[in-house]
Design brief:
By secondary structure, the chain is mainly beta. The protein folds into 2 domains: 143 residues, Apoptosis, Tumor Necrosis Factor Receptor Associated Protein 2, Chain A (Sandwich); 135 residues, Apoptosis, Tumor Necrosis Factor Receptor Associated Protein 2, Chain A (Sandwich), CATH 2.60.210. 4% of the residues lie in helices and 50% in strands. The protein has 2 helices and 20 strands. Strands 2, 7, 8, 10, 11, 12, 17, 18 and 20 form a 9-stranded mixed beta sheet that branches. Strands 1, 13, 14, 15, 16 and 19 form a 6-stranded antiparallel beta sheet that branches. Strands 3, 4, 5, 6 and 9 form a 5-stranded antiparallel beta sheet that branches. The longest helix is centred in the N-terminal third of the chain and has 6 residues. It is elongated and about 65 Å long.
Length: 305
């Protein structure tokens, strides 16, 4: 079973908005053909505020029904504080027809709560994105959106939020291998040398049975030069962290996709139990040496206007 994912700095990457709003939220994908080449995948937007609550859009690729392939667009509530109660929500999900200036849309009315964070899925046939009859993809760009219609008394004065995700064509992973020495004897966080991937510098962080994550090995990836990112810009990354088994070649590997921005380090606090790390029948720790391999793929760059 995969371990829960942790973030060292839990601060939200996007801006925290206040008050109610009913403006549409637009989510643009540049290099949309990349999605078809990756097969089954899921993409998440940043958090946006509407009607006093925080939300995210979720795009599911390569859905199939009755032999036809679809893309699925869903709305999710992103308020941790509200997950103990229900939020009745009336909303719209849509794909913008860029040639005719109109939407393909679906309206929904759902209760969002801790056991069901996603509303009904708006499915659009994949072949419509290639049809000249529809303008859903123009210059390899697609625009999705959502509008929460439930009204509240206050309204944000920040204007409409626009998020743009520019996808990369080159999805070649950068593999970096780091040899940790004297792992069991260490009483501090171990940090790798910085390594380059996709135009950014990265480090691996290792927590070997420290008080922060007692009884486990914590492994994280951090962006070394995140402060160089422009304001409201994040890097969309697919990464994996792998602890090599030097005896049986039964390596332990976890993978995730996240937005990296200033101050963030993503990974797993309970990557592997310390008991398993030290188990002599396994090859994770030999002669006080651990080897961790990081794979980093830059999927794209995400910006908010």
């Amino acid at each position: 079973m995969m371990s829960p994912k942790y973030v060292i700095d839990p601060k939200e990457g996007g801006e925290k908005k206040t008050g109610g709003r009913t403006d549409p939220f637009w989510w643009m994908f540049h290099g949309f053909s990349t999605i078809a080449n990756r097969g089954v995948d899921t993409y998440y937007s940043r958090s946006f505020t509407a009607c006093g609550f925080n939300w995210k859009l979720q795009l599911e690729t390569d859905l199939e029904e009755d032999g036809e392939k679809y893309l699925g667009l869903c709305l999710s509530n992103d308020d941790a504080a509200s997950r103990g109660s229900e939020i009745k929500t009336i909303y719209k999900l849509f794909v913008y027809d860029q040639l005719h200036g109109e939407h393909i849309q679906k309206e929904g009315e759902d209760y969002f709560h801790s056991k069901s964070l996603d509303g009904c899925c708006f499915k659009v046939a994949l072949n419509k994105f290639d049809s000249s009859k529809f303008g859903l993809r123009v210059n390899d760009r697609c625009i999705f959106g959502a509008q929460v219609l439930q009204a509240f008394a206050s309204k944000s004065d920040k204007g409409v939020i626009h998020e743009s995700l520019s996808l990369n064509k080159d999805l070649t992973p950068r593999i970096y291998t780091w040899v940790f020495k004297d792992v069991s004897k260490s009483n501090m966080i171990l940090k790798s040398e910085a390594f380059a991937a996709g135009g950014y510098n990265w480090r691996i962080l290792l927590y070997p049975n420290l008080a922060t994550y007692k009884g486990v090995l914590g492994v994280f990836l951090t962006m070394h030069n995140a402060t160089s990112l422009a304001s409201k810009t994040s890097v969309y990354v697919e990464y994996s962290l792998c602890l090599l088994d030097l005896h049986n070649a039964k390596h332990w590997k976890l993978t995730d996709k996240v937005l990296f921005s200033s101050g963030f380090s993503w990974g797993w606090g309970d990557f592997l139990s310390w008991e398993e790390v030290q188990d002599p029948s396994k090859g994770f720790l030999r002669n006080e040496i651990c080897i961790v391999e990081a794979s980093v793929v830059i999927l794209g760059v995400d910006t908010i206007a």
